[in-house]
From TrEMBL, chains A, B, C:
Protein name in the entry: Microsomal glutathione S-transferase 1
Keywords: Acetylation, Endoplasmic reticulum, Membrane, Mitochondrion, Mitochondrion outer membrane, Transferase, Transmembrane, Transmembrane helix
Membrane topology: Multi-pass membrane protein
EC number: 2.5.1.18
Family listed: Belongs to the MAPEG family.
Length: 150, 150, 150
């Protein structure tokens, strides 16, 4: 029997659960961050939103709101695949310290990515954070393919 | 050995499988709902779509199509994180009746969210549905962090 | 005890891990493909991207970049739900050859969908690829509901 189960008895899985929760929390918080900017700038998505505030639609796009939205979308494009790839990666039984290193690298790179994006830090800062996450996912997929077959 | 495994032998997991399937079905149906509106309004995304229907692109955006699209995107932003957070939550072994309550609350809030969004029910109805889902995810993440460590 | 566990000891799960990794790899590669087109066409999302290249924002939308972006979004809308539905499907213990057939059909339909979309193959090619994936997910959800309860 493989001991690479999805259970907190499996130390790799226990660590994965923690880091996956961190990046998922970060992703869901982006929704609230967008709402905060929409209210502050009075830029909403639907007519009923304007009816509640009693205001008129002004501009359809605000650069700050759009920035937070792009940052949120980037999380959906990266964090959700990471958690799914991570679950598969835990199942193929990676070496403990290597796995934890990858989980920490990804989590760190995504938190940094958000700080860089929202504060408009000059490029290539954002590209490097994004790239670090992509490399981690590539290494995990490499490990998965090396231990499974079509 | 923890009995908080991902298996239908674990009652919490069995319930999770059902409710996660409900909200994922709801999310994938949004694609078909968008297609239905695109065809009815003849508002497509790509030139080859217009070549098939033999029509010309009229307006690039239609308010009904855009409403369904926003509703679909909102599901991707909320339902996919919920299912992932839910898997992690099952792994940390929550109390059965508490867990089922959270699964039902989330599922109900998302079905209501879609009805409210598509029928343009005045705010704050949509904001409350959205908020209920966020609170459920927050409680699950709280439970995960209380039982794992970095 | 159910033997429908999430473990590579479960043959259905082992196959799922492989095919889920294929479609997730495909999805994450779409990010890099978008970046490649953004750089080639000099169409970026944020002011700091233009500051790095020392160029001015020209048009805000380029048809090639938008096509790759739509293709990427379509993957997020289909591949991520497939992997989640697939995990639940593995847990309800489907018949091995049926399950592997569904995994292969979905994976094939999504690879074809991308080739069709990026090469602007006339409709209904893209609609058929999309539909095949939706049918596979529908069959999986049917199986899940037939073995779980609210």
């Amino acid at each position: 029997m493989s001991d690479a189960t999805l259970s907190v008895d499996n130390p790799v899985c226990a660590k994965f659960v923690f880091y996956a929760a961190v990046v998922l929390l970060k992703t869901t918080l982006m929704s609230l961050w967008t709402s905060r900017h929409r209210i502050a700038k009075n830029v909403h998505t639907s007519p009923e939103d304007y009816r509640m505030t009693g205001s008129k639609p002004s501009v359809s796009l605000d650069p700050h709101v759009e920035r937070v939205r792009r940052c949120h979308l980037n999380d959906l494009e990266n964090v959700l695949p990471f958690v799914l790839i991570g679950l598969l990666f835990v199942l193929v039984g990676p070496e403990y310290s290597y796995a934890v290193l990858l989980f920490r690298l990804f989590t760190g790179s995504r938190i940094l990515h958000t700080l860089v994006y929202l504060n408009e830090v000059p490029q290539p800062a954002r590209a490097l954070c994004f790239g670090a996450g992509q490399v981690v996912m590539g290494l995990m997929i490499w490990e998965i393919f090396s231990k499974t077959s079509f």
